[in-house]
Design a protein that fits this description.
By secondary structure, the chain is of the alpha+beta class. It folds into two domains: 29 residues; 177 residues, 3-Layer(aba) Sandwich (Glutaredoxin). The strands form two sheets. Strands 1-10-9-4-5-6-2-3 form an eight-stranded mixed sheet, with helices on both faces. The chain has a two-stranded antiparallel sheet with strand order 7-8. α2 packs across α5. The radius of gyration is 21 Å and the shape is globular. It starts with a helix and ends with a helix.
């Protein structure tokens, strides 16, 4: 009798374990173009200056989602395309999700405060544009998984930089990376506006 009870208990425990595993797996967000970090980490202290001449630091990331990407205002293709997509996505997401879009310029020599202000106002004045010295930018961009490098000489140099985005949680932690994906073999990877909207909505729901 005791053996039967022990076996029944083991079967019940195994069944509950399987149910818990199924429940946990089912709770994972269904993402198209994003990667959810299994462990969210706070960013080390940083300080930049935004388009209004105000300090932009860790405190400005608290209390709402922050969608961050890097670039520069003289960028001929990736940055204006990304900004246009973010403007469209923000219009869809902002009514239901508390979030901000943060553009970090990695070209501080040319991207002055006035230039950042004009650039961001052209797309959406609600967005944040911030920059700082390379001594401030490099540690922050590395934490976020971004890379950048100056290419060429003189005033017409280009800046090679990551095309991905990072979503920072309302707690100020690195939460997910949104990466370009190729829809077909041979096509350039990109982040579509539809996938961006769907993934952020899914990540917000999962966070709740």
């Amino acid at each position: 009798m005791k053996i039967a009870l022990i076996i029944a208990g083991m079967l019940l425990f195994a069944g509950l374990g399987s149910f818990a595993a199924i429940t946990y797996q089912g709770s994972e967000p269904e993402l198209t173009t994003s990667y959810l970090y299994p462990q969210q980490r706070e960013l080390a202290p940083f300080e930049l200056t935004d388009q209004n001449g105000e300090i932009f630091n860790n405190d400005r990331l608290k209390g709402r989602w922050s969608l961050v990407f890097i670039g520069y205002t003289s960028c001929p293709d990736v940055c204006p395309t990304t900004m246009a997509k973010l403007t469209a996505a923000y219009q869809k997401l902002a009514p239901t999700i508390n979030m901000q879009v943060v553009f970090i310029s990695v070209d501080p020599a040319r991207d002055t405060q006035a230039k950042l202000l004009d650039y961001i106002n052209f797309f959406n004045s609600d967005f944040v544009a911030a920059t700082g010295s390379h001594a401030s930018l490099l540690p922050l961009t590395r934490q976020l998984g971004f890379v950048y490098a100056m290419v060429g000489e003189g005033q017409n140099y280009q800046v090679d930089h990551s095309a991905s985005m990072v979503l920072i949680s309302p707690e100020g932690k690195r939460y997910a990376t949104i990466k370009p994906q190729a829809s077909e073999i041979g096509k350039l990877p990109q982040i579509t506006t539809a996938n961006l909207i769907a993934d952020i909505a899914e990540l917000d729901e999962h966070y709740r």
